[in-house]
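$ fold --in a.seq
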Amino acid sequence: MKLRPIINKKGQIQSFIFVIASIFAVGIVLFFLNHMFDAVYTELDEYLETSDYNNTEAHVALQEYQTATNSIWDYAFLGILMGYIILLIVTAFSTRISPVFHWIYILISLIGLLVGVLLSNTWQALAESSEFSTTLTRFPIMNAVLGTYYPTFIMVILMIFLIILFGKPIGET
């Protein structure tokens, strides 16, 4: 018996759980990259201050670049977050599904909510570390979304996803 690949697997609940984990992973990666780059820029800045290149164009440009990149990482996270939400809405809108599966989706969504709560607790543990306190101040949006409001955010997105997925008349895409 030959196995056929399943085609057209969009709008499934697994994509929602994937988005929950992906948003957290993107946030962690951006957070650690910013922490690492800031440490490199700080060391370079300290080196330039003690060398003959103090107050030169390279030193001033490095300080300006460090200031600019520190604030842009948080907005990059917000853009990626909005992109994921838009993709979830589009896939939910473009999928036909029977209302019979509504209760199954709600039960599996509770697993996604549990995953979101666990990831939010992980972010809170990371945020409590004194080593990352200065880096955390540069991420107010990410800290609010992943830390304090991540389970609430997941529930709102889940409700929008389910309303769009099951709110269409049967037979329409």
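$ fold --in b.seq
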Amino acid sequence: MEKFKAVSTPNAPISEGDIERAISDYLRSAPRLWQNFFSGPPMPAENFRFNIFGQQQYLLLKRFDFTKIPKRVLKRLSVHLVKQFAVQVELDCKWYWALTHDIAHSPAGNRILVSWELGEAFTTLIAAHLAILGRAPSNRAIQRLNRVIDDSLTEPTKHLVRNNNVVLEYLSYPVLESLTKFALTSIVNSNGRVLTHFTDGRRDYVIGNEISQLSVLLRCLERNATQFLGKPNLETDLRDFRIETERIIPTTPARDGWDQIYKLRIVATHGVTRPEYRSALITNLICMLLWHLFDDNAIDLALQRITTRPSYFPRFPHDFYPPIE
């Protein structure tokens, strides 16, 4: 696999329009390249991810240094990344998730990880996305490295990493639900008991009601982030993410994008059948929520510190960015 490096972004500020144009360019060019790479029938859900098929020049990570993207754009980058799912879950997601993880472990996000009961589960979720064993054997040196890795690790370790998709399928939903309740602490407690009157746009909820549906919590957050959290941009970004979700997962007049995500969560929780593979979609939503919960005044400094990390210096345990391919 090609080793990617953070690009040197021009001095002009990166705008959301720049991101949108890059995504549009990707969606115009990547499908044709994909057809040359894969000739079978379309696969459901997110069965293809992180493949290299000649699309490198169209990736965001080849055009922009993610640490130089303004925080307002980073907060809604998930809206644009899920558009790439029309082709596959792209490497751009991998870089965004790694950056989100590192900001969460910086002064901008430490308070959240300490207070949020599933903060460590979030770290494990991102680690499962990024964990790899070996590389495509493109030369003898990599072939030798892969043999060393294969001989050095225990079979359970190799099985766990090579089947990380199973971990992701079942871990992503509780992390999302827990984070949503954490964001709504002033409205509902961790058990879903309503603490103050609100509406999710479909019905009113009063003190003492019990909420067990993730869809209600997400609709509540989309509708009430300004009133209860003082975050009007979160309402906008959640609305746009929901609209993109509805393009990926067909809805009905009675079901919106949040209903569809809740339906996926129910399948994963009850274990009747294997859940549909949507962990990348859910992880992008988790990352969006986290960026809005980070300490806004500390994000820029945290990004700057990541930018100036010496590449030759050994990584600390919580340094995931940039992801190692």
